[in-house]
Amino acid sequence: MNRPKLRSRITVEGLDRAPHRAFLHGLGLDEAALARPMIGVVTTQGDTSPCNGNLAQQAQHAADGVREAGGSPRQFTTISVSDGISMNHQGMKNSLMSRELIADSIELVMRGHAWDGLIAYGGCDKNLPGMIMAMVRLNCPSVFVYGGSTIPGMLDGRTVSVLDVYEGAGAVMAGTLSRETLARMEKVAVSTPGACPGQFTANTMGMVAEVLGISPIGSALIPAVHAERAALGRRAGHLVMRILERGGPLPRDLITRESLMNACAIVAATGGSTNAGMHISAIAHEAGIRFTMDDVGAVFERTPLIASLRPGGAYYALDLHRAGGVAMIVRALIASGHMEGGTPTLDGRSLAEAVADAPDPDGRIVRPPADPIDESGGVIVLKGNLAPEGAFIKVAGLRVRVHEGPARVFDSEEEAMAAIRARAYHAGEVLIIRNEGPKGGPGMREMLGPTAVIYGQGMGEKVALVTDGRFSGATRGICIGYLSPEAAAGGPLALVRDGDIIRIDAAQGRRIDLMVDEAELDRRRAALAARPPRRLAGAHEKYAAQVQSAYLGAVTHSGAVDWPVEEAPE
User: Fold this and answer.
1) What is the per-residue burial (b if ≥16 Cβ within 10 Å, else e) of 101-116?
2) Residue 516: which residues within 8 A CB-CB, separation 6 or more?
3) Domains of the chain, with CATH numbers?
4) If pLDDT is split at 50, 70 and 90, which confidence band does 3 have?
5) 479 in Cβ contact with 376 (< 8 Å)
6) Which helix (H) or strand (E) holds 63?
7) Catalytic residues
């Protein structure tokens, strides 16, 4: 690999760049600093959530590493919408949208200033895919570092997380938990800065980043507050400079069909977040690779579930970190043929070489692939006449995988929550929440609020919930989401009526079907009234006009951006 020309020379070299240099001198850069490569160091630091609470501190170590390796770090921030705080109200419409804005904003800052490389620190759910999407879009020397998760809290001698608080609210409604206990729980559940400690979306995507090769192996599961993150930051700074010097590997060298399949395998093997399937498709799109829900589902189907991680299992990210981390799982899956070991990583080693020293599965947190928790992955794709393009369900820890019952239709999350809070639903029903897809929301809200309350009320596997919206990585129960095509785009979910029988088979058939004959569906389709017009403006209007199906990753542009290097003036 040959060192590429430095993009940043367009801003610092030549007579007519004197004003540019003046601005940079105003930032404290001397002539020596101007002569060095410019490396963007971006975080989502802020007071929006504890996930981002110490990212600036971590990123400072990365900036120090850039300086040590001969670069000039340029630090900046981008937005973050907390999934936890935006959950269960209209604010959640902004969460998935923020993934696109994070990617767009990083692209604009990097291209606007013509910097030479990028280190990104993300903490909350949409930060991670948004930042990785930006890196693949820019295709410049890049290192992604997940900021790590919080330490689980303790209450009355047992570990608790924010999931226990969500479900605790339902338990209070059901009369099985006191308000006083819930009040004590909410004060200790998030004990330090960092993301949720279970195998929810943030930890899942941190693992995905390692397996894609765009994050240092061994980095994802280090808790956010552990001291070893200082050395990790400096290593990231050194690494991006080495990639720049060598001319690669660049993000699109790392994001290949094989590495994307590996990413799907780590999700399936760990019972990861259903959101990850959609994010992996979106990352692929940035590289110009068509990688749909079908591609994701094929890997999920053939990959065994081997890690017992919450919410479907028993352990937290911290437990897995102490046992051997992501590398332990990856090494086992490569050995069993469920992952391709020849894919590259950003330090130049193959994935197999990078995990060669990892320990064997411990048999408790991680089981050998030959003796899995489940023969197929913790997340699977269902298809059928209700989901022609597909839908995701997390089956890790799910005991009831076949359900047939009458539909109870709600046209928004708010309608559903009102019925759930009042316990105005019955065992055996299939609760339908529609018009919550990418366009229909717009924004494709997560349904952790409804599912957690249902679970807390003791109804988690007695009813099913089906939606064209999303689910949190913390969701558990018979919960099918991401139905494509969505109701607002004319999908079959729009045709369902109260009392229709819906059959779900997540055991053998991998199907979800509306048990209504085709002639009746044709009559309903012909009579389907258009939704009342809504006035959308601002970000919601732009997103609804541009976003594509969840089947394709809910992406908003044509993909594979080209960013040529400009020649500096004489």
Assistant:
1) bbbbbbbebbeebbbb
2) 495, 500, 501
3) 380-531 (3.50.30.80)
4) low
5) no
6) helix 55-68
7) 472
Strands of the sheet containing 38-43, edge to edge, are 72-77, 38-43, 117-122, 142-146
The residue with tokens 């959950």 is 87
531 pLDDT higher than 80: no
Look at residue 79 and tell me whether its pLDDT is greater than 70: yes
Q: What's phi and psi for 381, nearest 5 deg?
A: -105, 130
CB under 8 Å, gap of 24 or more: what pairs does 179-186 form?
181/155, 184/155, 185/153, 185/155, 185/160
Burial class (CB in 10 A: 0-12, 13-18, 19+), 411: middle
How far is the C-alpha of 256 from the C-alpha of 254, rounded, in Å? 6
What are the backbone dihedrals phi and psi of residue 425, each rounded to the nearest 5 degrees, phi first? -145, 170
d(CA 85, CA 391): 26
Distance CA 134, CA 214 (A): 12
Give the end-to-end CA distance of the chain in Å, rounded to a whole number: 27
Q: How far is CA 389 from the centre of its chain?
A: 21
197 closest CA partner among 44, 343, 309, 38: 309
Left (φ > 0), alpha (ψ -120 to 50) or beta: where does 447 sit?
A: alpha
Residues 6+ apart with CB under 8 A from 335: 369
| Residue matched to tokens 């320990």 | 359
The 10 Å Cβ neighbour count of residue 323 is 18
Its pTM stands at 0.96
Q: Please report, as a single letter, which amino acid is at residue 411.
A: D
Q: What is the rounded distance in angstroms from the CA atom of residue 96 to the CA atom of residue 469?
A: 11
> In the chain, count of helices (H) and strands (E)?
22, 14
For 349, the token pair is 């080693």
Alpha-carbon distance of 440 to 545, in angstroms, equals 11
Coil/strand/helix, residue 299: helix
CA distances from 536 to 429, 443, 540 (A): 33, 12, 6
Coil, helix or strand at residue 570: coil
Cβ(478)–Cβ(403) below 8 Å: yes
Phi-psi category of residue 498: left, alpha or beta, with phi > 0 → left and psi -120 to 50 → alpha? beta
Determine phi and psi for 10, rounding to 5 degrees.
Answer: -65, -20
How would you write 319-377 as a 3-class SS string?
HHHHHCHHHHHHHHHHHCCCCCCCCECCCCCEHHHHCCCCCCCCCCCECCCCCCCECCC
CA 218 distance to own-chain centroid: 18
Q: Please tell me the distance from the alpha carbon of residue 236 to that of residue 88, in angstroms, as a whole number.
A: 36
Query: Considering all CA atoms of the chain, what is the largest pairwise distance in Å, rounded to the nearest integer?
Result: 76
Report the pLDDT value the prediction gives residue 570, as an integer from 0 to 100.
Answer: 67
Burial tier of 75 (Cβ tally within 10 Å: 0-12, 13-18, 19+) = middle
Q: Which helix (H) or strand (E) holds 143?
A: strand 142-146
For residue 398, what pLDDT is reported?
Answer: 87
**Spatial separation of the C-alpha atoms in residues 466 and 481, rounded to whole Å:** 6
Alpha-carbon span 268 to 297, nearest angstrom: 9
Alpha carbons within 13 A on the beta-carbon side of 86? 23
- DSSP-H helix ranges across 457-536: 518-527
Give me the count of residues in the chain: 570
Cα 167 from chain centre: 22
In percent, the amount of the chain with pLDDT more than 90 equals 91
